[in-house]
Structures are given as structure tokens and as C-alpha cells.
Write a structure and sequence with these properties.
It contains 17 helices and 8 strands. It is α/β, with parallel strands linked by helices. The structure holds iron/sulfur cluster (2 copies).
Length: 393
């Protein structure tokens, strides 16, 4: 069944308020998606109560999964955002990422020529049609030193398991998720066109993403790829490689670990168990759950443009999440999304709890076990504004 139109949404909403009860904003402030829907349907909203309010949404879909009518409130938020953008009402904090997307093909202000620095020394070949997989690197994996380590660990795991893969290298450009979620419809359409052409022309049939946001974009918002390219998040492939014995986690990782479900992996795409199976395959690792897990996971605050708007909106979901993780006794927060890594790392710093808990991508933990302690050095080329925070498990 296709997604409901915005008009259908207004007619079917029960005004029950279940969405408002699930929204993470209400953990620290007051935010009312039910009322936004109501005011939109009655056309009685003000600039403040609707147009400005929609920019706070982190598109986490906590509301969508509990709505008794299955309404995707995220779609409504995006539709209003798109209208705002089309009338020149884009918030100032989105100017840098949107300009950077147009000029450099990434939202971080990174140089296009530096896109492959994350993979320095790993000998990842350019994709050819004979490869099984094309590895699509998220812009955050490529330019954020914290996430580069995860990308490098994943590439090492693929090489160890003798997976046949390559990358599009400099032909790679942002999947467009930030533009899509910020309501920059034309910018997103341009990136969809460009990436679709590049992937089809290169002969890609299976795409591996390092971010759940890229997965969501390619899987759900690229009509030209629908029947031609199967997209997978890296945790799905790692899960199979471990299950089939092509990756053997043999080294002890004696740590208490909790898993933070990224919104676009879990609630948006239904992938909850593969990451947990991977963690449970690691000897010595004790997996503990936070009270808010799986469908009920609390957003890190990085989606929907939150990675750029957090400070302007005074939004502290990642701090709440780190506090929740500390409450479980975990020493490590494992996750599987470059935005989550970035937001949670910042929150650990903000709380000053670096000596109690560290943030790790799941691929890093698996690599630590598979390689029995081989070090994965990040390539040392930080782009401006993406300072590195180094922690060791
Ligand atoms: S949970 Fe669904 S039906 Fe209820 S108010 Fe929210 S959008 Fe409407
Ligand atoms: S998507 Fe998340 S932040 Fe946005 S209204 Fe729904 S619950 Fe709130």
C-alpha cells in the first residue's frame, strides 16, 4: 500500500494525541505534533505554531510507529518544511549544509577531493560490474574523523570475509537525505537523479550503506533504483557473514555494552535484531538494554537536520540518551549510524563522562574481536568543523 497523501492524513487523524505522548521533545520541553496536524487541517496555524514548529522535528518516527491510524507525521513535517523552503523561509542554520551539498556534494563543508581520505591505505578498489557489492560511504563517515574509524573497520571486515566490493570513489555524492529532510525538494531531486545515473551506469546491483540514512534514501526514495538495485545497511551483511562463519569473532571484548537503535535503522526500516545478534556473537561482551529500546528508542537528535540545528533549538536528546545508557551500567554505547556516533560522542563530552562510557560503532567492536586487537588507525585528515575525539575501549 502506498503512503497516504497529506489530505488523507488530515481526514483520518483521530486527534488522540498518542503521537504527542511519544515525541522525544516532551522529555525536555513541550511539543505537540497532534496540534500541528489539527491546525494544518483547519488552516488556523500561526507562523510560530506550525511553520516554525516543524523545524524542531527530528523525523525520528516515534510518533508514526504508535499512531493508531498509521499516519506518517514525518511526511507532514517534511511537506510543511518544503513549502517553507519554496517560499524562502529556510532557517539560517541549514544554509551551510544545503550550500555545501550543492557546491561539494556533502553537507559538512568537506572538499570533494578529500572524500576518499577515510579509506587511505585500505586499498579499496573502484567498483566494477564484476564486484558483488558497491560500498556507498555516507558523507559523515567520509568527513567526520569519529565515524571514519567505523568505515575503516567495516572495510577491513569485508576484506577479511573476502567479500567482493568496490566504491564509486570520487563519483560518489551525498545520498540527499539531509536535503530531503530539510525540505529542500529540488536539491534532493538533483542528487537522486545524479546518484541514480551513476549507480546504474556503473552496473551496481547491490549497494551497501554505512548509514541508515543512506539506506532509507536509496531504499525508499529512489524510484529509478527500485527494481534494479538492492540496498542494505552494513549490519545486515555483517550479521550474515558472522552467521555463515565467514567472520569469526574470536577475541574477547570484556565490556558491558548497550545498543542505541538509530531511528532510521529501527523505526524507519525495521532492523532491530541484526545489530544485537552481531554484538552477542562477540566473546566476553555483555549486552544490556536501555529501558527505551527498539521501537521505543530515544532519538540521538541528529536526524531531520538535527545535527545542524541542535544548538539553535537547544535540543539535548543525546544527553538524555547517554544518561539512560549510564543507568544500565554500560561502559560502551554501541550504535550503527554516523549521526548517532557524532551526537552521542558530543553528549559524552558535554556531560564530562569520558572516563565512564565511550561510544563505538558496532563494526569497530566486531573488528576488535575478529582481528583480536589489531588497531584501526583513522586516517588523520580532519575537515574543518569536524574535530576528532579519540576514545579507546
Ligand atoms: S497518533 Fe495518529 S491519529 Fe492520534 S493524534 Fe497523532 S496523528 Fe492523529
Ligand atoms: S518524528 Fe519524532 S520529533 Fe517529529 S513529531 Fe514525531 S516523535 Fe516528534
Amino acid at each position: 500500500m502506498g503512503r497516504a497523501t497529506v489530505g488523507d492524513i488530515f481526514l483520518s487523524c483521530l486527534q488522540c494525541g498518542t503521537c504527542t505522548g511519544a515525541c522525544p521533545w516532551n522529555l525536555e520541553a513541550s511539543y505537540n505534533p497532534r496540534r500541528i496536524l489539527r491546525e494544518l487541517s483547519l488552516n488556523c496555524g500561526s507562523d510560530r505554531s506550525v511553520d516554525q514548529a516543524v523545524w524542531s522535528c527530528v523525523t525520528c518516527n516515534a510518533c508514526g510507529v504508535v499512531c493508531p491510524r498509521g499516519i506518517m507525521i514525518v511526511d507532514v513535517m517534511q511537506a510543511v518544511r518544503a513549502l517553507n523552503v519554496s517560499t524562502g523561509k529556510t532557517p539560517g542554520y541549514f544554509k551551510m549544509p544545503l550550500d555545501s551539498l550543492t557546491q561539494s556534494g556533502n553537507p559538512w563543508g568537506g572538499e570533494r577531493t578529500n572524500r576518499l581520505q577515510w579509506a587511505e591505505g585500505l586499498d579499496i578498489p573502484g567498483f566494477v560490474p564484476e564486484h558483488d557489492y558497491c560500498l556507498f560511504t555516507c558523507c559523515t563517515t567520509a568527513y567526520d574523523p569519529d565515524s571514519r574509524q567505523a568505515g575503516r573497520a567495516f572495510a577491513r571486515l569485508l576484506q577479511t570475509a573476502a567479500v567482493s566490493f568496490g566504491t564509486l570513489g570520487s563519483r560518489e555524492t551525498c545520498c540527499g537525505d539531509p536535503a530531503h529532510k530539510m525540505g529542500a525538494t529540488d536539491g534532493f531531486a538533483g542528487l537522486v537523479r545524479k546518484n541514480s545515473e551513476s549507480l546504474l551506469k556503473a552496473g551496481v546491483h547491490k549497494l551497501l550503506t554505512t548509514s541508515p540514512h543512506c539506506l532509507d534514501a536509496f531504499k525508499n526514495h529512489y524510484p529509478a533504483l527500485k527494481d534494479a538495485v538492492a540496498s542494505e545497511h552494513y549490519t545486515q551483511l555483517l550479521d550474515r557473514l558472522v552467521a555463515r562463519g565467514r567472520l569469526r569473532p574470536v577475541g574477547q571484548v570484556d565490556r558491558i555494552v548497550t545498543f542505541h537503535d538509530p531511528c532510521y535503522l529501527g523505526r524507519h526500516n525495521g532492523i532491530f535484531e541484526a545489530p544485537r545478534r552481531i554484538l552477542q556473537s562477540i566473546p566476553g561482551l555483555k549486552l544490556v538494554e536501555m529501558p527505551n529500546n527498539r521501537q521505543g528508542s530515544v532519538c540521538c537528535g541528529g536526524g531531520g537536520g538535527g545535527a545542524w540545528s541542535k544548538d539553535a533549538l537547544d535540543q539535548n536528546f543525546s544527553v538524555l540518551r547517554v544518561q539512560e545508557a549510564l543507568g544500565t551500567g554500560a561502559e560502551v554505547i554501541a550504535t550503527a549510524c554516523p549521526y548517532c556516533i557524532r551526537m552521542l560522542n558530543a553528549a559524552v563530552g558535554e556531560l564530562g563522562v569520558e572516563d565512564q562510557i565511550v561510544v563505538r560503532d558496532l563494526a569497530e567492536l566486531l573488528w576488535q574481536s575478529v582481528s583480536s586487537g589489531d588497531d584501526i588507525k583513522p586516517a588523520e585528515h580532519a575537515e574543518p568543523g569536524l574535530e576528532q575525539e579519540v576514545c579507546h575501549v
